[in-house]
Design goal:
Elements: E1 8-11, H1 19-32, E2 36-39, H2 47-57, E3 62-65, E4 68-69, H3 75-89, E5 93-98, H4 102-107, H5 116-131, E6 138-139, E7 144-145, E8 162-165, H6 169-178, E9 181-182, H7 192-205, E10 214-224, H8 230-247, H9 250-258, H10 262-275, H11 277-288, E11 293-295, H12 297-309, E12 314-320, H13 324-335
Parallel strand pairs: 1-2, 1-12, 2-3, 3-5, 4-5, 5-8, 8-9, 9-10, 10-11, 10-12
Antiparallel strand pairs: 6-7
Length: 336
Amino acid sequence: MSAAKRRISVNLPWNPDFVDTFVTRARLADEIGVDTISVLEGYGHDAFTGMALLAYETEKARIASSIVNVFSRTPATLAQSFGTVDQLSGGRVVVGLGASAPGAIERFHGVKFERPFARIRETVELIRLYWSRERFSYEGPTIQVERALVSGMIPAQPTAQIHLATLNPTSVKMTAEIADGWMPTWIPNDRVGESVAQVKQWSVEAGRPADAVEARSPGSATVLLDAERQAEIDRGFAQGLAFFAVRNGPGYFHQFERQGFAEEVAAMREAWQSDGVGAATEIAMEIARRFSKRGSLEDCAAHLDEQSTLGVDLHQVSIDTDDDQRWADALADLVG
């Protein structure tokens, strides 16, 4: 194990039916010294209810959304929600934003997935304007605000810390220019270093420090406390990879192409159409080991240290156990 303390992020599934586990693990993670606790928002429970609960139940860890999309809420609503949680937490909120994908935006929220890059930039700019609690007017390509009313929420941080989940080189460059953090995904382990280096270069070209943007790991290191679970966990990861590559919109398909897996994702698409998810998963198994890490505590710790040398600032980790104490012990070992 490395002697240096690692910056660790954990995602806690938010479901009111399991609120006791959610709170217990949040408190344990906070006591251990986990850097960030994230709440995911997809088609189920909203992120902000869980984030508010984390703000009340923890004292030190940052509280992040991973991620909230920029289409289904107005920038003003996002500023209100994040600012309120920031006020409640004493200044520990990380605003995690992304465009999501056409399927989620149009088929769940009923909103057109249009001009995602412009929408992200406008949302970042407007959240910071609302956060300042000063009157302003704003003229953007999709959003216009005339003499905005001053928000009544009083966030603790002087300005919002905004992290963006971006894939396309154009949007990643935008992240380097305007954001405080980058949440990449589906980048193979052996290409993480060059990806982070590119963001640093773009930051400098934008007149910012090279380290202006905090880089999160593209995937999660999953600790398997039961070695017999390896095959099942690996297959589940490969199935998720196949879904993102084939069914979750062209943005993810093109991301795998950019990372050098054009033939594999084309084969997955054909297999899914003809023989279903199982056939696509079999193909995904061939490349899944190149993404993230799934293994013993020692293997995952070594992976985190290697990722740190490549420029990763914040490591996503998960522990495969239902036992809260075993979960906490393994997490404490990874934090160091």
